[in-house]
Design goal:
GO terms for molecular function: D-lactate dehydrogenase (cytochrome) activity; D-lactate dehydrogenase (NAD+) activity; FAD binding. One of its GO terms (cellular component) is mitochondrion. One of its GO terms (biological process) is lactate catabolic process. Its EC number is 1.1.2.4. The chain has 559 residues and is of the alpha+beta class. Among the domains are: 185-301, Uridine Diphospho-n-acetylenolpyruvylglucosamine Reductase, domain 3 (2-Layer Sandwich), CATH 3.30.465.10; 305-508, FAD-linked oxidases, C-terminal domain (Vanillyl-alcohol Oxidase, Chain A, domain 3), CATH 3.40.462.10. Helices cover 41% and strands 16% of the residues. It contains 19 helices and 18 strands. The chain has helices at residues 2-19, 27-54, 84-98, 107-112, 138-151, 203-210, 227-233, 240-243, 246-249, 278-282, 316-328, 341-350, 372-388, 400-411, 413-424, 440-457, 483-499, 515-522, 524-537; strands at residues 103-104, 131-133, 155-158, 175-178, 185-189, 194-197, 215-216, 250-256, 262-264, 291-298, 300-301, 305-312, 335-339, 362-369, 393-396, 430-433, 461-466, 471-478. Helix 3 packs antiparallel against helix 5. The longest helix has 28 residues, at 27-54. It is globular, with a radius of gyration of 26 Å. The chain binds flavin-adenine dinucleotide and 2-acetamido-2-deoxy-beta-D-glucopyranose (5 copies). One 2-acetamido-2-deoxy-beta-D-glucopyranose is lined by residues 247-248, 266, 271-272, 277, 279-280, 283.
Length: 559
C-alpha cells in the first residue's frame, strides 16, 4: 500500500513535469510549477526514505514518462499555451521564415477559416485562428512546427475545409496552417498503380488527371475535399463498397510531427511487415498527431463500362434486404446507394434531373467492368433479385453517359435537401448530418427504427446511405428552435448503432462533437490509450487541440 501511494506521488510529479509548457510562463504558472516541484521533491525524498526502509528499488531520477499503459484524463494537468505576446513573437518568426506574403492576419481570412456553413458543430464567436500561414514545402512545415512547439502555439492543419464534425475548429485560437500552396501531383507510377501527391490536391482534380489514362482513386468524399484532409478523417464515399475507404487506399505518408521532426511511414510496395503500422496511425487522426505533407495512394483501373440501375421499393426494409442478398450472392457492385422517398422528392424538385423517378425508397446500383455483355448479364441478375425482394420499379441506364446522369442524382442529394428546406421551410435552415455505420445484417433494423423516429419528430430529413458498407446519413434540417429535437434524434441514432455493434461515425470522423460516443463505442481504456499516444507524440498538445479525445481536464465538456 505504501508503495502504491509512493508511486502515485512520483507519477503525478513526473506527469506534470513532462507536460508543463516549456514556453515562456506567467508568474502564476511559475509559482504553480514551483509548488509542484517542491511537492514532487518532498514526495521524492519521502519515497527514497520509504524505499530504503521497505527495501523498494529506487526510481530512476531521469524517468519522465508516466509508468502506465494508458493516460486517463484525471492524470494530467491543463495544457499551457502561449500567451498573446509570446504567440505573436512566434508568428513574427514564422512570417520571417516563409515570407510576409505567405501569412495572413486579415480578419476576413481568419473568419473564413473558422468553419463552413454545412458543419454539424459550429465554433463559438472567439474560436477562430489568429494567423493563417501558407507553407510551400515539407521543410517549411517542419520549420513552422519547430517554432510553434517552442512557443506552445496551437496549430490546426487545413486542406479542403469540407469536413463537417467541427474537425478544424480553432477551439484554442492560434495558427491555422493551410496547405493550399502544396497542391502538386509529384509522381504517377502507372505500372505500380500508385500516385504520390501533396496534401492540397483535390480528389476530383486527381481523378481528372488520372482519367485520360484510364485510372482513378478510390475515395470520393464531399466535392472540394483534398488528400490531406481525406487522410485526416479517413473518408470514403460512394466507391468504398468496391475500392475501400481511405484506410485501405494509402500506401505511405510523409508526416511532420508536433516538434518539427519529419518521418516517412513506409516504403512504396503494396505490402510490408516492417514494424508498427505508422501509416494506419495517422489515417483518421484528424491532424492531432502530425501534418501530412506527402501521400502515396493506390490507383485503380477505372471500369471501362459502368451501368447504373435505379430500383424502387415500397419500403426501406425491402431495399436493405436486397443489399444483403446482393452481398450474399457475391455480386460485386461498384457502389450501392440508398435514397429514401424524401430524398427522391427533393432531387426531383431540384429540377436537375432529366427523368422523374417514383417518390419511394430507391436503390442506385452501380456495376462496372471491361465488357458490356458481362454487364448486361449481371444487370439481368440484379433485376431478378430485386423482383424477388418486392421491387416496384427497375430502370437501367443504356450507356455510360446515361449512367453518369443517374449518378449525379446521388451527388446532388445533399445540396438539394438544403435548397429545398431553405425554400419551403425556413430561409435560415440549419443542417445536422448523422453518419453511423453498422454490420450489414443490422442495417435494415437500424435504418427502419431511425426513420420511424424521424417521421414522428416532424423535422424534415432525407436519408442517404452508402448501404454497401452499412453506412447511412440522415440529413436532418432544423429551424433554430428545433436544435434540441435534432440533437436527440442524432444521439438516439448513434446509441442505436452502437447497441447494434456499429460505429458513431462511418466516414466523417469524431471532431469535437462525437468524443463522448467514441468512449461509448470503444470503452474508456481505448480512448485513454489514444490519449497516451497523443501525449507521447505531442507532449505540449499543440496539434489540432480538443479533437477526437479530451486533452484538457478543465475543458467544460464532460467527455
Ligand atoms: C456535401 C458534402 C458531402 C460529403 N460527402 C462525404 C462522403 O460521401 N464521404 C466522406 O467520407 N465524407 C464526406 N464529406 C465530408 C468531407 O468531404 C470529408 O470529411 C473530407 O475527407 C474532408 O477533406 P478536406 O480536405 O475538406 O479536409 P479538412 O476539412 O480540411 O480537414 C479534415 C481534418 O483533417 C485535418 N487535416 C487537414 N489537412 C491535414 C493534413 N495535411 N495533415 C493532417 N491533418 C490534416 C484537419 O485538421 C481536420 O481535422 C462530405 C462533405 C460535404 C460538405
Ligand atoms: C512567399 O510567397 C511568394 C508568392 O506568394 C513566393 O514567391 C515566395 O517564394 C514565398 N516564400 C518566401 C520565403 O517568401
Ligand atoms: C497499415 O494500415 C493501413 C491503414 O489502416 C492499411 O491500409 C495497411 O494495409 C496497413 N498495413 C501496411 C503494411 O501498410
Ligand atoms: C417531380 O416534381 C414535380 C415538381 O417539380 C412534380 O410536378 C412531379 O409530379 C414530380 N414527379 C414525381 C414522379 O413525383
Ligand atoms: C479497463 O481496464 C480495467 C483493468 O485496468 C478493467 O478492469 C476494465 O474492465 C476495463 N474497462 C473496459 C471498459 O474495458
Ligand atoms: C425479404 C425478402 O423478400 N428477401 C428475398 C430477397 O430475394 C431473395 C432471392 O433473390 C430471397 O431469397 C429473399 O427471401
Amino acid at each position: 500500500m505504501f508503495r502504491n501511494q509512493f508511486l502515485r506521488g512520483i507519477r503525478s510529479f513526473s506527469t506534470s513535469h513532462t507536460l508543463r509548457s516549456q514556453g515562456k510562463k506567467s508568474i502564476r504558472q511559475i509559482l504553480k510549477d514551483n509548488r509542484q516541484i517542491i511537492l514532487g521533491s518532498s514526495l521524492f525524498g519521502l519515497g527514497i526514505t520509504l524505499g530504503f526502509t521497505f527495501g523498494i528499488t529506487r526510481p530512476n531520477p531521469d524517468w519522465k514518462f508516466p509508468e502506465s499503459s494508458t493516460t486517463p484524463i484525471d492524470n494530467i494537468i491543463p495544457p499551457q499555451y502561449a500567451f498573446r505576446a509570446d504567440m505573436f513573437d512566434g508568428f513574427n518568426k514564422i512570417s520571417k521564415l516563409i515570407g510576409e506574403s505567405n501569412v495572413s492576419y486579415d480578419n476576413d481570412d481568419l473568419n473564413s477559416f473558422a468553419t463552413n456553413s454545412y458543419s454539424t458543430h459550429l465554433p463559438k464567436d472567439n474560436q477562430k485562428p489568429k494567423m493563417i500561414c501558407y507553407p510551400r514545402s515539407t521543410e517549411e512545415v517542419s520549420q513552422i512546427m519547430k517554432i510553434a512547439n517552442e512557443y506552445s502555439i496551437p496549430v490546426v492543419p487545413y486542406s479542403g475545409g469540407t469536413s463537417i464534425e467541427g474537425n478544424f475548429i480553432s477551439t484554442q485560437p492560434g495558427l491555422l496552417l493551410s496547405l493550399s500552396n502544396m497542391d502538386s501531383i509529384l509522381q504517377f507510377n502507372k505500372d505500380d498503380l500508385d500516385v504520390t501527391v501533396q496534401p492540397a490536391v483535390g480528389w476530383q482534380d486527381l481523378n481528372a488527371y488520372l482519367e485520360p489514362e484510364g485510372f482513378m482513386i478510390g475515395p470520393d468524399p464531399g466535392p472540394g475535399g483534398q488528400i490531406g484532409g481525406m487522410i485526416g478523417t479517413s473518408c470514403s464515399g460512394t466507391n468504398a463498397a468496391r475500392f475501400g475507404t481511405m484506410k485501405e487506399n494509402v500506401l505511405s505518408l510523409i508526416v511532420v510531427l508536433a516538434d518539427g521532426t519529419i518521418i516517412k511511414t513506409k516504403n512504396r510496395p503494396r505490402k510490408s511487415s516492417a514494424g508498427y503500422n505508422l501509416t494506419g496511425l495517422f489515417i483518421g487522426s484528424e491532424g492531432t498527431l502530425g501534418i501530412v505533407t506527402e501521400a502515396t495512394l493506390k490507383v485503380h483501373v477505372k471500369p471501362k463500362f459502368e451501368r447504373v440501375s435505379v430500383v424502387s421499393f415500397p419500403k426501406i426494409v425491402d431495399a436493405t434486404n436486397m443489399v444483403t442478398k446482393l452481398i450474399q450472392e457475391d455480386i460485386v457492385v461498384n457502389a450501392v446507394e440508398l435514397l429514401d422517398d424524401n430524398m427522391i422528392d427533393v432531387i426531383n424538385k431540384s429540377g436537375q434531373l432529366n427523368k422523374k423517378w417514383k417518390v419511394t425508397p430507391t436503390l442506385l446500383v452501380k456495376i462496372g467492368g471491361s465488357e458490356e455483355s458481362v454487364l448486361s448479364k449481371l444487370t439481368k441478375k440484379i433485376e431478378d433479385i430485386s423482383i424477388e425482394n418486392n421491387s416496384i420499379g427497375f430502370e437501367s441506364a443504356g450507356s455510360n453517359k446515361e449512367s453518369e446522369d443517374l449518378w449525379t442524382a446521388r451527388k446532388i442529394g445533399f445540396w438539394s435537401t438544403i435548397e429545398y428546406a431553405k425554400q419551403h421551410i425556413d430561409p435560415n435552415i440549419k443542417v445536422w448530418v448523422t453518419d453511423v455505420a453498422v454490420p450489414i445484417s443490422k442495417l435494415s433494423k437500424v435504418i427502419e427504427e431511425t426513420s420511424e423516429e424521424v417521421s414522428k419528430s416532424k423535422v424534415f430529413c432525407t436519408i442517404l446511405g452508402h448501404v454497401g458498407d452499412g453506412n447511412f446519413h440522415c440529413i436532418l434540417t432544423y429551424k433554430p428552435d428545433e436544435y434540441e429535437k435534432v440533437k436527440t434524434i442524432s444521439e438516439n441514432t448513434v446509441r442505436r448503432a452502437i447497441l447494434n455493434e456499429g460505429t458513431c461515425t462511418g466516414e466523417h470522423g469524431i471532431g469535437v462533437g462525437k468524443r463522448k460516443y467514441l468512449i461509448e463505442e470503444l470503452g474508456i481504456n481505448s480512448t485513454d490509450l489514444m490519449r497516451k499516444l497523443k501525449f507521447a507524440m505531442d507532449p505540449k498538445r499543440i496539434l489540432n487541440p480538443d479533437k477526437i479525445i479530451k486533452i484538457d481536464p478543465e475543458d467544460p465538456n464532460k467527455f
